Amino acid sequence: MKKLLVLLAIICLASSWNFGWNFGWNFGLAQAPAAQSLVITNGRILDGNGRVIERGSVVVRDGRIVSVSEGTATVPGAQQLDAQGRTVMPGFIDGHRHVIQGDATQWLNEQARARMQDYLDAGFTTILSAGDSQQQILELRRRLQQGEIPGPTLIVSGRVALAGRGGAPATPAPSGGAARGAGAGGGRGDPARFDVARPPLRPTQAAPAIPDEQTRAAVQALKAAGVDAIKTGITVTPGGPEKATLTVVAQEARRLGIVTITHAVTVEDTLAAVEAGVDVLVHTPHIGRLEESDAAVQKIARSGIPMMSTLAIFVPRFVGSDNVPQFRDLLPFPFDTLSSAGQGPVNARLLWEAGLTYGYGTDTSYRPVDSLAHELKPLSLVFSSRDIVRILTRNAAVAVRRLDQIGTLEPGKLADITIVDGDPLADVNNVLKVAVVVKGGKIVVDKRQR
């Protein structure tokens, strides 16, 4: 009898637990949206793949997109976000930034939070650091990933050299006050002012080679440190080792499962990077005329290697009321580089027509909203508003190798969403009018009038 009573008690307990589990599970499904779901309604949706929904909804659960549909979607208990007819689009992506300025440790401790918020305020939900102090940029990524500070997803690269010092330029680099500006050059003068890739400064002698085993070890060390990508800069010297070493870098990085991003600003150097088999080109070649060589255009485009824009570097900026044209470092503009402002967009359009995937990148370190406004100027010379929206979202996701997660509004992807006033397809400058930003399903910026 005692055993029978124990058995009956177990059965009753199991039945009660099963009922409670089923009830609790079903109840949990019904209630979970209250804490973890978001429904964006009444939005004009640009999904990043070319689809336009004039009035639609996006449903988000647990940080990912569940559905993108016409009409109004309802999820009981979910947080509601009325877009009020605004344009809902994928979060913006900058595939070539220099994030940290000045003293890296001081910046990290004193400015990181505000500067990361600047990216969100401008609509950027993913950025790629293409050259920052390694220890500090990895710590910044950790803080972002752990939620210690709000900000975009940060993709970190580490640098590997392709040759030793050498390969003297034909003409010594000029010197003087103009070289002392801060900017992407980290306070040592903007390197784009006196770029050794540009004649007459281009080297005329072969640079010393670096042993292959040393190059592989450098890639392995960066992988162990936790970087997401290996950055190289290639300026081919006569008879030099740069292309061969870059091939070693690309092969070792691929073996280790990380990508190779390469700075190449001339047609010659871009072709060498393509032949070396890199994964991403982080500049549009702006030195050399691609219209003179269809073979070069086809070779670059058919390689399948995506490219970043970075066109506005050589377009003068006018900051303040003095009407003085400025360079990226906010010092007087070096007009001997001005040809790149025209050649870059021409080369970009020729590569686009040949089928190259062209993404957004700026190679800047100043405020992202200002950088975006400036980059839109040369992009708009040769691309339509529809093209630029694609460049800023889907194509940039391809270029940073994250299209499986971001870049379009599709079920299963991360809910990184930017909502802007106006229609960017009618006027691309409307991307500057950010109203709301959703990062990983959470509203992190909301500028709507209430």
Task: Tally the helices.
Answer: 13
| Beta-strand share of residues | 15-25%
Overall number of structural domains? 2
| Name of the top-level CATH class of the largest domain | Alpha Beta
Output the CATH topology of the largest domain: TIM Barrel
Radius of gyration: 25 Å
Based on CA inertia axes, which overall geometry fits? globular
The low-confidence parts are: 1-35, 171-187
Major sheet summary line: 8 strands, mixed
Q: Which structural class best describes the helix and strand composition?
A: alpha/beta
Task: Please bin the fraction of helical residues.
Answer: 25-40%
Q: Judging by the overall fold, what is the CATH architecture of the largest domain?
A: Alpha-Beta Barrel
Polypeptide structure, described:
Helices cover 34% and strands 20% of the residues. Mean pLDDT is 89; it is low at 1-35 and 171-187. The strands form 4 sheets. Strands 1, 2, 3, 4, 5, 16, 17 and 18 form an 8-stranded mixed β-sheet that branches. A 6-stranded parallel β-sheet has the order 6-7-8-9-10-11. The chain has helices spanning 2-31, 33-36, 104-110, 112-121, 134-145, 212-225, 242-256, 267-276, 294-302, 339-353, 368-382, 385-392, 394-399; strands spanning 37-46, 52-61, 64-70, 79-82, 87-90, 92-97, 124-129, 153-159, 229-233, 259-263, 280-281, 307-308, 317-318, 325-326, 358-359, 417-420, 434-439, 442-446. With 450 residues, it is of the alpha/beta class. It is globular. The chain is built from 13 helices and 18 strands. It has 2 domains: 35-91 and 408-450, Urease, subunit C, domain 1; 92-406, Alpha-Beta Barrel (TIM Barrel).
